[in-house]
Amino acid sequence: MAAAETSSIAGLLLVSVLILPVVGILAQLALGGRFLNWICLAVFPASFGVSAATCAVVWSHGEPLIYIVGGWQPPLGIALRADGISAAMMLVTAIIICAVAIFARVEFTQPSGAPEARAPFVFWALILALWSALNALFLGCDLFNLYVALELLTFAAVPLVCLKGGEATVKAALRYLLFALLGSMLYLMGTALLYGAYGTLDITLLAQRVHPERVTWIAAALMTVGLLTKTALFPLHLWLPPAHAGAPAAGSAVLSALVVKGSFFLIVRLWFDAMPGLGHTAGPQLLASLGAAAILFGSVMALRQQRLKLLVAYSTVAQIGYLFLMFPLAMAAEQSWTSLAWTGGWLQLFSHAFAKAAMFLAAGLIADALGHDRINDLGGAGRLRPLTFCTFGLAGLSLIGVPPSGGFVAKWLLLSASVAEGQWIWAAVIVVGGLLAGGYIFKVLGRAFTAGSDAPVIVTPVSLSREVVAFSLAVGAVLLGFFPLEPAEILQIGRPEILGSTVP
Amino acid sequence: MAIMNAITIFGLCAAALVGLGIFGLIVNPQPLRKILAINILGSGVFLMFGVIARRGAAAGLGGDPVPQAMVITGIVVAFSATALAVALLLRLVLVSGAATLEAEAEPSEKDGR
Amino acid sequence: MTLGEVLLVATLAVPLVTLVLALSSGSHRRTTILLVLAAIPALLTALFAESGTTVVLPQALLSLVLSLDLPGRLLLGAAALLWIATGAYAVLSRRGRENDNPFPIWWLATMTGSFGVFIVADLVGFYLFFTLVSLSAYWLVVDDGAPPAKRAGAVYVSFALLSEAFLLLAFVLLAVATRNDSFLIRDAVAAISTSPLRDPAMAFLVLGFGIKIGLVPFHVWMPLTYASASIPVAAVLSGATVKAGVIGLIRFLPFGVPLPGWGETLTALGFVSAFYGVLIGITQTNPRTILAYSSVSQMGLIAAVLGMGLATGNSITPAAAAFYAMFHILAKGGLFLAIGVAQKTRHRTEWTVLLPAAVVVLGFGGFPMTGGAIAKYAIKSPLGDGDVAMLAMVSAAASTLLMLHFLRCLRASRSHETRTTSAAEQSFIWLAIVVAVVALPWALYPAVIQASAHDALSFDALWKATWPVLIGVLLFGVLGRAPRILPMIPPGDIIVLQSWAWSGAKALGDATERIDEYLRRWSIAGSLLLVVTLALIGSFYVGR
Q1: Which of B16-20, C254-258, C272-276 has the lowest mean pLDDT?
Q2: ipTM, 2 decimals?
Q3: Beta strands in C30-69 (DSSP E)
Q4: Chain A contact for C421, CB < 8 A?
Q5: Which residue in A164, A174, A184 is closest to B111 by CB distance?
Q6: Is residue C237 part of a domain?
Q7: Which residues pair with C452 in a beta bridge?
Q8: Euclidean distance between CA atoms C310 and C258, whole angstroms
Q9: Which chain C residue shows the shortest CA-CA distance from A434?
Q10: Rounded to two decimals, what is the model's pTM?
Q11: CB-CB under 8 Å, A449 with C142
């Protein structure tokens, strides 16, 4: 950050959004499980309120919100900075985490009177840690601090995978952890190289100092690939399907909707903010090619799955691919359409977050209610649990890109940018991906709403409130579809003029 | 000139450690060895920071303090990572009786919920 | 707000509100009658709202622009009539199954979409309603849950999604052609005819709408779907929802400026369908399948008319094509109801079905004084006087042949049991549609084409309308003598290729699964990580 930038009072919001969840964890540790419900009741609404307030302040002021921790100026001190994309991410994160918390309330409650159970304790601590880590990722300005935030995120996410403690899930968690650690080390190596070459890791200062030279390229590649392992972009997706399918529903929802987006967010910071020069190379095309491969490959794999949760997990592999189409489209040399692609990419992220969270929660409810999640044996289950399957269907429509839904707006914007910029190949991939998504969504819905050979039975009743929470997330994905088909103002706040100025 | 040589040697050592670590992580099937390999890889990266601190030292100072601070933070993070990985590994041995990551089964129905 | 604007909004609002009612009410016994009532505002709009009425909805409703024009009005009115009639038919035939809850919901959703495409004037809105009508209909098709319906539903939804994909690309191109300035269809179409994106946009439009109207080779879903859906569903699918493709072509093709190349292409595609539908249709014996192939043929004819209009820049084309489509909505929908009525009618009273059916059937060939005659007369101007007009005459003869074949199979399909259940109420619905099929085209012709209907009664016109029918009858007589010369072709003809495509897709899927298993091995993924790193470094050296 330039030295002239100073904290404002509103900047305290940024500190509290990091601290509040941590305070919650500390209170849990200090007070014990008996007060768990009360702690959650206090911390979740408070953190949500602060996140929403931050977003509102950034939006209304139209400029980034900055807090210099302890008054120490960067590059030595630590600054927190919320620009448009961080504010939007914080808001989406807050909404989804709180919805998931309401969903998980019944499953992970501390039984009164009974001896303290471990799973609820761990679950809530992990969710809060995850929230704080995500906010740190969105607000960080220094590549090393961002590394720490990234690790916090991983450490909170991995145990969430194996909360049930079965062999397969522990194995999935371990694979996730080891692969993510390899990624972290690559990232760290990149920061070391950058610091060695330019003497700073502050994003703004780096953007002024980097030269197109060998050390920059190597550092950028190491950091990007390190982050790709955590984002599970094809072909580095080995850990994702078992991990996301094995976690409890609430965990899967957060992992798929938010955690993989955390490292993606950092890639965007790196490419667009720290090293915008990467846009003049073939790098964005390579990233988008991997993204395109992810879309096609992940969708076909989703179509082939026999288990609902694995289907949803592979659909995440595919949907992550769309995010990377943003790079060549928003970094294109001809700039009149880049802001459209920029908005489209972020909307894809937000709508996928809502849709996928809803979908995992719905899949969890189905598995709970029926005692299994074999797609072939769903025949007629839609008539037993209409609301849950409606949730699945609505979220699915957003993934396919059917209007009105966030997925539709995102696809429309990305498609517009790609045909206007003449990058037809990405348009073709987007459309084929939508078709394949239609295939796997209708495969499930078709089974669920037409009678099968033997009708399924409800083995465990599912509370209506949990169904409603999942449904509201799906409605959120639909509501994003009311976004106008133009570059969004909030996402441009704090952007360099390159992206902000030109609206076609 | 002597310093330059030392830096080069340490730099090469760092590169060797990183190479060993990555090789071990990819090739070794046993999870424990993978965890060790990550630590070797980490040591290589930390050594790299040390080299950079030394090389980038301002006149009069023995070394640039910023990378050193980063190394300390990095070590803490790597330590926690190792602890978490070992804990998971122990858990895996406990529930499955064997410590292997290959031949992974799809999560069973019970876990799937 | 004027009355017209209120009606225009009510056309969509009333079915939607009814949909919400049907979703929320526990018992559906009371909501079934609403299936019929919900379509009434659409009819009133077509009758009383002026052409040119426009409503811009607020941002919270996606800034949809609703607008009524002549083609939209014709199709909306006829579709509303058909939805009302089939709604009543469905309520009667589903007595005792009122609590089968998904049916009314999907019925209303499909209906909303079907009305929406006729009156919406912006790109996003059109895509929204087109999607609604296409995808909701899937649930109507699979409603009875039998395996053939499930198979038909899967084929149907695959083609529906494919057509949406093409249209999405086309609409994005149209929006880009206006530099995102306007999402109005009118502006986008004006911009596209001079844009460098014209050719891809036209190709995607023809593909997208071509699938919807079943142009060969995208027609395979039609015979399967119409043969396995229930009678009222088949009636609205063949009559009303298919016209979403027709209105799409009418709205999105740049008429008024001659656009050679694309016009001829569409005409050729249309005539191929027109004759292909008849050729396969006469080999079928299931009356529903025959009607489906007749739809392939008739939609082909409409596409040919639109293609000729596009090539010559004839500005009457949209109205004429919509006029013909209006006839087809009522005639085809009505004949499906006739199949249902015939199955319940006893031997003694069979003439109550067959005689009116004969009137409608002859209309398909343009026999004088039928509704079809004036409809065919209306599309003469776009088709011109040359070889194309001759082809249209031949297709009328072919249609006569196919529809007489239908009549014979319909007679064969009627019930032989002496059941006590009377189909009297259903028969009235069917007869009412017959009256509309004959009377409406004659009544509306002067207003639509702005010419007197007397011209159609001149001796020359009568003769030109009669001889194709006579040839058709003659051919029918010849074929009737030697029915064995026809080969056996399964419904959906080239759908048999599906099994090849299926095994190909399966092989591809198997391969993908194997690759995934391989890629997800630890050592492979680790090596790939290094490969990706090196590739990324390499890519940074490659300037753009």
Answers
A1: C254-258
A2: 0.91
A3: 54-56, 65-67
A4: no
A5: A164
A6: no
A7: none
A8: 6
A9: C165
A10: 0.92
A11: yes
